[in-house]
């Protein structure tokens, strides 16, 4: 990217690259071996300041501009998906909370999250509803208390978090008007059931939860924004940069897949020659390179549009995610193909990269949903 390179930033980028390639890889192996994220990994990410890169200084963050932060996200994404997930989520959740919170709430919820002292889980998806205005989890207000009823699932960090930033709707309402966002403490509240549901295909180590609420009392002052603003908090300004960040995660992980494919192709010999000398393999590598560069350019374009407040920034955000996840699918598939049957075995890192990549097609909305956003803009002449 053609931005002036600041010396401090360059040093930070090199430090992160060294950490990802060194201790990060050791942690990746431990996570795969044990199926859980070691407690000290979270502590290390926090103490190194990697969880507070993107938040502004007024919230205790390091205030790195978005497109520069993405360059760091690209590097973290070459690492284990759980490391990438921790960095992506904690560097992003403040964006949903900050614009809607009172000063008192900011001190209580946002600052401790940015500092890595408290973990906030983004809690929206439901098993029996579509993500968005279709929400079915409800609250009923009685005085200063909301009583929460409903079920959430697929919630990353939902087991171990301190707070669920949760989307619900006022009982009896429909559409986006009745929605609200609320901070629900994960402290064994009455009627709250937390089910560990972490047996996933990839992204091993990160916990995921099914949550059930039955008349669970939550104080009204924990509400984020007003009644009716739930979708604005949870999907509004937050989703746009977050989709671009996921798109850049795809670029970083694709780069890792390509690196592994190149190394393997230069090592593996068949019929007396390295497979890297075969045109079929060279074509895979060339296609991967071009695919990655094209997606990266679009992701950075989307990041600049967001930073400049461009009116079509949301469209570019969805478009960049669409292109980047499809690219990642192709690149990881070809990288695995280059490994031959070996690549299917867990002892080879490409096996994990391939599994982890698949999750990115769901995060922050599937491509089918991104296409709806883009098509609407195309058909109404917004782009
Ligand atoms: C690893 C991982 C971590 C996650 N972490 C979180 C988290 O922390 N918090 C959270 O809230 N959620 C989380 N999710 C859930 C994720 O956001 C959803 O899986 C995603 O938004 C898709 O929603 P769904 O699973 O309900 O799919 P569904 O909505 O059931 O969709 C099923 C299929 O139908 C398509 N479809 C659905 N609606 C439409 C439509 N209107 N038009 C056309 N096609 C449609 C979809 O594209 C998909 O192909 C996570 C998911 C994964 C895989």
Topology of this protein?
Blueprint: H1 7-34, H2 39-47, H3 66-76, H4 81-90, H5 93-97, H6 103-114, E1 120-123, E2 138-142, E3 145-156, E4 163-170, E5 179-185, E6 192-196, E7 208-219, E8 223-224, H7 230-267, E9 269-270, E10 273-274, H8 279-307, H9 313-338, H10 349-359, H11 367-379
Parallel strand pairs: 1-4, 2-4
Antiparallel strand pairs: 2-3, 3-7, 4-5, 5-8, 6-7, 9-10
Helix pairs in contact: 1-3, 3-7, 7-8, 7-9, 7-10, 8-9, 9-10, 9-11
The protein binds flavin-adenine dinucleotide.
Secondary-structure arrangement, i.e. CATH architecture of the largest domain: Up-down Bundle
Structural class, by secondary structure, is alpha+beta
> Ions, cofactors, ligands: which are bound?
flavin-adenine dinucleotide
What integer value in Å does the Rg equal?
Answer: 21 Å
The name CATH uses for the topology of the largest domain is Butyryl-CoA Dehydrogenase, subunit A, domain 3
Mean pLDDT: 96
Treating each run of at least 4 consecutive H or I residues as one helix, how many helices?
A: 11
Biggest beta sheet summary: 8 strands, mixed
Structural domains: how many: 3
Number of strands: 10
The CATH class of the largest domain: Mainly Alpha
């Amino acid at each position: 990217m053609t931005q002036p390179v600041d010396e401090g930033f360059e040093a930070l980028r090199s430090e992160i690259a060294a950490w990802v390639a060194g201790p990060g890889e050791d942690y990746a192996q431990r996570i795969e071996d044990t199926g859980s994220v070691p407690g000290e990994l979270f502590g290390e990410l926090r103490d190194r300041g990697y969880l507070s890169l993107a938040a502004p200084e007024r919230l205790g963050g390091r205030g790195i501009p978005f497109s520069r932060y993405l360059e760091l996200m690209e590097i973290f994404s070459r690492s284990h998906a759980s490391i990438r997930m921790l960095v992506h989520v904690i560097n992003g959740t403040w964006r949903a909370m900050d614009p809607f919170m009172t000063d008192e709430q900011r001190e209580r919820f946002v600052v401790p999250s940015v500092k890595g002292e408290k973990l906030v889980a983004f809690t929206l998806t439901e098993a029996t509803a579509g993500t968005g205005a279709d929400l079915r989890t409800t609250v009923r207000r009685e005085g200063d208390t909301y009583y929460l009823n409903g079920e959430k699932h697929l919630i990353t960090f939902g087991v171990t978090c301190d707070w669920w930033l949760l989307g619900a709707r006022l009982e009896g309402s429909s559409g986006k008007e009745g929605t609200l966002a609320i901070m629900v403490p994960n402290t064994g509240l009455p009627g709250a059931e937390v089910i560990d549901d972490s047996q996933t295909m990839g992204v091993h180590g990160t916990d995921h939860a099914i949550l059930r609420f039955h008349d669970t009392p939550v104080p009204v002052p924990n509400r984020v924004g007003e009644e009716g603003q739930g979708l604005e908090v949870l999907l509004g300004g937050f989703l746009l940069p977050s989709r671009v960040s996921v798109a850049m995660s795809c670029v970083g992980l694709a780069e890792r897949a390509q690196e592994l494919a190149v190394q393997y192709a230069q090592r593996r010999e068949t019929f007396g020659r390295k497979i890297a000398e075969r045109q079929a393999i060279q074509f895979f590598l060339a296609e991967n390179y071009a695919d990655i560069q094209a997606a990266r350019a679009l992701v950075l374009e989307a990041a600049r549009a967001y930073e400049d407040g461009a009116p079509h920034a949301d469209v570019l955000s969805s478009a960049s995610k669409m292109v980047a996840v499809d690219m990642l699918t192709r690149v990881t598939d070809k990288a695995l193909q280059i490994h031959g049957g070996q690549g299917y075995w867990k002892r080879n890192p490409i096996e994990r990269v391939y599994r982890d990549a698949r999750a990115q097609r769901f995060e922050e909305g599937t491509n089918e949903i991104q296409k709806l956003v883009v098509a609407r803009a195309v058909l109404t002449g917004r782009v």
